[in-house]
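Preliminary data (for renewal application), fe (iii) ion complex.
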Amino acid sequence: MTLMNAHQYRESLARRRPMKIYLDGKRLENPLEHPSVQASVNSVALTYELAHDPEHRALMTARSALSGETVNRFCHLHQSSADLIDKVRMQRLVGQRCGTCFQRCVGLDALNALFAATFEIDRKFATNYHERFRAFALAMESNDWIVDGAMTDVKGDRSRRPAEQSDPDMYLRVVERRADGVVIRGAKAHQTGAINSHWVLVMPTVALRDDEGDYAIACALPADAEGITYIYGRQSCDERKLGGDAASAIDSGSACYGGQEALMIFDDVFVPNESVFMDGEIAFAGLLVDLFASYHRQSYGGCKVGKGDVAIGAAATIAQLNGVERAAHIRDKIIEMNHLNETLFACGIACSANGTQLPAGNWFVDPLLANVCKQNVTRFPYEIARLLQDIAGGLMVTLPSAKDWLNPETAALLRKYLAGAEGSDPEERIRMLRLIENLTMGRGAVAYLTESMHGAGSPQAQRIMIGRLANVDEKKVYARSLAAHDDLEGVEAAIRTGLAGLRAAKAPAA
Ligand code: SF4
Ligand code: FE
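Predicted structure:
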């Protein structure tokens, strides 16, 4: 069914076979009934619901290049730089609505990365991975699946490569090859939305060497495949909303929405040949990682900006409720927050606008600008959060429990002494402070802060790519030419010669 709504999405999750999911020391028999899972499902459900909203339908959907049908943009192979820009705008929109991670972008980024990588593998090895992947892509968009992009291996000893680990399962690998498919073993960490997904796309996490062919595996699996175990990740203050009462809802800061990460263990899971998209082609593992990472670094120029909008809205509101909204330094801090947030958006738009078409036909972001985007994301949300905490004041962390707010013995005292600006509602103030606590220190900080640091690669990964892509040699040609010549012709000739020399040095040998 193309274009599910939120209700149909929830029903589709309930139709999956029983899955092995652990949370807080217990196996979840009915995962969809657990408040943590429910909140995270609500965030994903927004991506379905907004596709039916007349105001947002045009942004949330696209015309498929594979089928010609209207599909959810989260299942779309980008067909232009306008499509790439719309992806970022869509992510900002959904981020504004839930203020947390809506989990669906990893699958979209894996879709576009694998579409391109399988095309390149086939060109070199005359394999038929791309045809298989097209069939998967068509099924993904026509069923409106949410797909988990499973890239990050647990990695064991970071000083050792996959083949050097004392336990070879520290990177997911093929442990058996059969006539009809492969058997995989290993684990993927920080799996965003894995438990809320229909399918999983497994990919290698690093560029690989000759003796690491078993680690060069990319494939698709149903999320409920036999042999997969999920262990839910804890989030700061995640027990706040477990009480199921009014006080828990207030203290949780944002009771309706949440993100989700899980450790995902593949214990000898069989994958049929038609779902295998790379097996042993080590030369292409690095390309696949780079494609996926660039797309996901672009994603952060949308999703984190949407969450930033919530943070800025919270800053302006708490300033109003505290009675300081007109103070010059508060207004300036809010301007600074907007400046930082819009800079991130500008980076997301820029790497999209500068996109190019790949040989496979889908469009790719400008990788240098995507890495610059993500590098800024590792910093600016922290500064926005710092300013938000500055404006909120210390009450954010010394506020009594909502149980005291609702307790008749203390309610009147708190109503009197937690009053803010004349005429404002103290409960609104309490709720806003809890939202700020959640965004900057609680469950929401996973999506807004720590994921900004480490999601789509930690800061050093972007610095390596920026170093690789920035073309400093070309910049040296400009500087040298200007310094060495005092006449116009001399400068121009030196630049032309210098650039031609660089091009010749880069051209593949005949
Ligand atoms: Fe999407 Fe952002 Fe969540 Fe990544 S962190 S899945 S880009 S919402
Ligand atoms: Fe992420």
